[in-house]
Amino acid sequence: MTTMTYEQAMEEFDPVFGIEVHVELNTKTKMFCGCANEFGAEPNTQVCPVCLGLPGAMPVTNDKAVESAIRLGLALGCSIRESSRFARKNYFYPDLAKDYQISQYDEPTCYEGSLDVVLDDGTVVTIGIERAHMEEDAGKNTHVGGTGGIQGADYSLVDYNRGGVPLVEIVTKPITGMGARTAEVARAYVATIRDIVRALDISDGRMEQGSVRADVNLSLRPKAVAGESQDDVPFGKRSETKNVNSLRAIERAVHFEAARQASLLLGGQPVVQETRHWHEDTSSTTPGRSKEEAEDYRYFPEPDLLPVEPSREWVEELRSTIPEHPAKMRARLREEWGFSDLEMRDVVAADALILIAATVQAGTTAQAARKWWMGELSRVANDREVALTALPVTPDAIAELQGLIDEGKINDKLARQALEGVLAGEGSPAEVVASRGLEVVSDDSALEKAVDDALAAQPDVLAKIQDGKVQAAGAIVGAVMKATRGQADAGRVREIILQRAGVEG
Amino acid sequence: MSEHTVDWTRATAARMADALAAGEVTSVELVQAHLDRIAAVDGPVHAFLHIDAEGALETARAVDADRAAGKELPRLAGVPIGIKDVLVTKGLPTTAGSRILEGWIPPYDATVTRRVREARMPILGKTNMDEFAMGSSTEHSGYGPTCNPWDLERIPGGSGGGSAAALAAFEAPLTIGSDTGGSIRQPASVTATVGVKPTYGGVSRFGAIALASSLDQLGPCGRTVLDTALLHEVMGGHDEMDATSLNEPVPACVDAALEGAQMDLTGVKIGVVRELSGADGGYQAGVTQRFDESLERLKGMGAEIVEVSCPSFEYALAAYYVILPSEASSNLAKFDSVRFGLRVEKTTVEKTMLATRAEGFGDEVKRRIILGTYALSAGYYDAYYGSAQKVRTLVQRDFDAAFAQCDVLVSPTTPTTPFKIGERIDDPLAMYLNDIATIPANLAGIPGMSLPSGVAPEDGLPTGFQILAPAHEDARLYRIGAALEASLTAEWGGPLSAQAPELEVAE
Amino acid sequence: MSSLERSDVARLAALARIDMTDADLDRLSGQLAVIVDAVAKVAEVAGEDVPATSHPIPMANIHREDEVRPSLSQDDALAAAPEAEDGRFRVPQILGEEA
């Protein structure tokens, strides 16, 4: 069989792809019960009769999840259905407690939207959104024996803590005409969704924890021949690669699948319409379990739940809370802040954009905000191995800290000590400055005494200064700073030294 | 202290409540009397799947102590009750009549269970039922049939045969039932007891093991209309754990029953549904006769009788036997051997599920799951489930039109008196016909009651009179029902249940 | 509408995860075919113009506040499990040897 590269595949074929993204919402509780929606608890401790699927239990919809889904739909340019409802998707699987998933089928809450995706070179691609619907997550299977995977396992263990966590599934329309940029577009699309859900504050957007998960559908069709429109060429058979859970993996999955399918097609073999598993370690996909029959999910309206009918007023109120498109906001802020492309890219990569924006909002200059978040705070986050957003300090506190410097109450060195105190939970910057006694000594009489002491101790230096060697004053400044434990304003100290020496600065 | 001559098991719940309040009897005595009666007759009747003697006595003792201490207590505090095994009871086995749940002890209480506990009613035990409430005879219980106390060779109706038989055999003064297509009303009819299916959403379904979620409704069962009303008010009311629960006050059932007992129905218009009466509908002669006599009594109390037509009822049975199996096929998927219940261990989880469900479910459950799976499957949904939902709309429209002409509708509850155990077990369609008159109410969500209308002259077995009211108008059932009951018992010299043949008492 | 065949019942039973022996299929297929034929009449009466009724009492927007309620303890959650291990429900292997 011919083995094709992605690039070769794209020369020979026209790719068509679609992406389904599952977003786990950051509501306090699950979709249909009051169990906590938190990652990382002991197994089966965030479960109740509802999410364990015990006989008799009934679901009740989380209003915050509905709100989040509608806001997400609005951010994706979707129409919001006046009356939508839940449906049961029936299939047996041990991690699905009720052996049906409550989802939405023929009447999703959000439908027909579009999303602009900005590629690295600034190209804007518009992705059609088919729908965004609410559903519940399944529990988690752990496989024991063999290599730890599902295949070859001796048995499996099920934890239902994740079962019933609210999800929004976003489904694109088929995306065509991207050619060799398909992988890049796929990646940028998922990155944009992730940025949007974070900006909306409806999900933590952590792909590594599965908060944002993607399934990638891809098919290849022949390129149109002369005189034929590419639109008239029918789609090929597609594969659906499940659970591709990093941006890099999305790009790689597209590469792998395109090359695999092209190799098959050029070798005269058919592509099988199937589900495939993504393997991060080998950057490849393998077929899912072959199904003896097509899945028949027997969808029907969920009889335990009533229709969702958001009022027009409420939808408009929610629309007013939709933040700016992340890529557009980045372009605007870069302009406003005067950052270079490189600076901006670093800020985005460090997840510092929102933090800097909030710090600026609180009254600091963009450069000062960037200095703190990309400098000292990034270093601390790195040391502690946590995300910048997870540090126990708010943009308001950073703005306050910078304000103290600007007012001359503290200097940079003292500010770092104050920040240390803030991170240690000792209070606001002003409180830490007060409690640790970090304020710059600005009382001239105290400084004058310290300068006089230092000059008396080093008469040779005084002589040099009086000789016109003004730079020698540095030694006295150092001595004064030491004596005042760094709390003196070095500029003012220098002025006093020169005054005392009878030299004009 | 009560006298030895008083057999408290024969008393009404209302009388027991009054006697408790007056200090004539203690709750422990009442509970013990019923436990004794259960021990004496439940062998052959088999109304109960599980008896909680110690739990019931404990509640009784606590109620007696509180009463002695002068604490204020709910009206039915200390009056014992039986709960259909479809309701989840924390710490008490709950099986819904299925072997697949044998031995399951729920970690939580159904909302109605909680309300019964809050009403301080001692729970005698869990009553038998057709497996997952699928049936009209209780023959489909995974634990053996319940027998009709009127004739132990006959069925007590179903699915709530246990709850009805427990009343008819004087094993409990009150029981709880669930009605998906008649499972409260049809057993009431064939055991000469009273049963009410409230408006859909009037009683919380949280913790009731679901058969068909859009049809199921829990309701009260008693030997008199007033007793049933008292229990209705304990069970009913809004529950935030059930999204389909009505957020409105509990209907004033007790007041309506007291008003009805005055036997004045002046100004009340009663509609007779043409499609639910007459010999051409397969109605037994004695059933029709007792129904007609009851109509005359209502007329005699001042009611006006009109005839109404509900042409879509012809399709109701078919729609019901599409919607119910469809929803049930999904509701019963959770019995998969993973988290609770039976497991028949095989090499893979799929084979284990296949084997567990094959062994744990009875034939009727399997039939309906297959039927529902079919009706929902790709390519058939529109023809079956979709069409059935439309028939549901037509049935609702028929009711709307009928209630525009009258206050309540009436019919015989079920076409025949109780048939013999085994007679229809292999003919599902014949079995389904038992529910022809009760099913339309479930499709439309409206409330319905069955109360005794006498025994059929040809076989001496009970016949039932059904009253249907518009949604939210449950109180009307109690007013009309109490009036008819007052008129009939005046003639009988007491409730019809007292005429049941004496059961042989075990030593 | 065509009646239900034995092979249909076998397929549906697999979909519904109920093992059926030949004897089961023989017994249930005939009964099911009769029932299916009887209920097929639902398609006769309601036309395009009739809306479907999913809920008997029409209501909408019945939601709950996003407030945490107590969960079960792990012991209570696992108490009825046919088999449990390490705080989790244990099930036989999901994929068979052939996979």
TrEMBL record, chain C:
Cited InterPro entries: Asp/Glu-ADT_sf_sub_c, GatC
Stretches for region Disordered: 78-99
Gene3D superfamilies found in the cross-reference section: Glu-tRNAGln amidotransferase C subunit, N-terminal domain (1.10.20.60)
Pfam families recorded: GatC (PF02686)
Source organism, top-level taxon: Bacteria
UniProt KW ATP-binding keyword: yes
Keywords of this entry: ATP-binding, Ligase, Nucleotide-binding, Protein biosynthesis
Catalytic reactions of this protein: L-aspartyl-tRNA(Asn) + L-glutamine + ATP + H2O = L-asparaginyl-tRNA(Asn) + L-glutamate + ADP + phosphate + 2 H(+); L-glutamyl-tRNA(Gln) + L-glutamine + ATP + H2O = L-glutaminyl-tRNA(Gln) + L-glutamate + ADP + phosphate + H(+)
EC number: 6.3.5.-
SUBUNIT field: Heterotrimer of A, B and C subunits.
Family to which the UniProt record says this protein belongs: Belongs to the GatC family.
Protein purpose: Allows the formation of correctly charged Asn-tRNA(Asn) or Gln-tRNA(Gln) through the transamidation of misacylated Asp-tRNA(Asn) or Glu-tRNA(Gln) in organisms which lack either or both of asparaginyl-tRNA or glutaminyl-tRNA synthetases. The reaction takes place in the presence of glutamine and ATP through an activated phospho-Asp-tRNA(Asn) or phospho-Glu-tRNA(Gln).
Name of this chain's protein: Aspartyl/glutamyl-tRNA(Asn/Gln) amidotransferase subunit C
Lineage: Bacteria, Bacillati, Actinomycetota, Actinomycetes, Micrococcales
